[in-house]
Specification:
heterodimer, A: mainly beta, B: seven-stranded mixed sheet, four-stranded antiparallel sheet, 11 strands, 51% strand
Chain lengths: 113, 117
């Protein structure tokens, strides 16, 4: 079983649509959770951290369910510029090494005009 | 702030040659640098973690004699792919972290695309 699992997509949605991505992680001791965005042939960039209480940043809302080991990202009013691969990322805890990031394979979003 | 550069951005080489990739933190001192590899349609996979002045810690399955990492200063880490072969063709990305960074955030370089012929 992969440590971080995501639906690879692609998700093809029209502009203005609302789209949701899900992610599950296997290590219950995981410390921190993030969504990154990666454009084609570029490095990943931090989109937002995910907090237990849920958090929102403009059109983006992230949720975390520790009991189910499940993370989600909701994008409202999709823009063409949102087209990218969205990476679910977990920071694991390995005997004191708290800065190891585990990346999911990503979910590809294509927003259509 | 928190800019990380990589050089070169792209390299094409013949099988058997060695390739060195540099990763620099431009405006902060990176206590830790990470090297990742990403094959097409796959996730970023951590190869190794390096702390300035000490030996790198390699992930399981990554050959330390093939992927040489040097972290000689707080702003520079290098990855040398020795005797590169076509299966080493990949997107290599470094990241840097500073102890003072919020949540130990990692800042990623723009990546180096290696093609071995």
């Amino acid at each position: 079983r992969k440590e971080v699992e995501q639906d690879p997509g692609p998700f093809n949605v029209p502009e203005g649509a609302t789209v949701a991505f899900n992610c599950t992680y296997s290590n219950s001791a995981s410390q921190s959770f993030f969504w990154y965005r990666q454009d084609c042939r570029k490095e990943p960039k931090l989109l937002m951290s995910v907090y237990s209480s849920g958090n929102e940043d403009g059109r983006f809302t992230a949720q975390l369910n520790r009991a189910s080991q499940y993370i989600s990202l909701l994008i409202r009013d999709s823009k063409l510029s949102d087209s990218a691969t969205y990476l679910c990322v977990v920071r694991d805890f390995y005997g004191g090494a708290t800065n190891k990031l585990i990346f999911g394979t990503g979910t590809l979003l294509a927003v259509q005009p | 702030g928190a800019v990380v550069s990589q050089h070169p951005s792209r390299v094409i080489c013949k099988s058997g040659t060695s390739v060195k990739i540099e990763c620099r933190s431009l405006d902060f001192q990176a206590t830790t640098m990470f090297w990742y590899r990403q094959f097409p349609k796959q996730s970023l996979m951590l190869m190794a973690t390096s702390n300035e002045g000490s030996k790198a810690t390699y992930e399981q399955g990554v050959e330390k004699d093939k992927f040489l990492i040097n972290h000689a200063s707080l702003t520079l880490s290098t990855l040398t792919v020795t005797s590169a072969h076509p299966e080493d063709s990949s997107f290599y990305i470094c990241s840097a972290s500073a102890a003072i960074a919020r949540h130990n955030e990692q800042f990623f370089g723009p990546g180096t695309r290696l093609t071995v012929l």
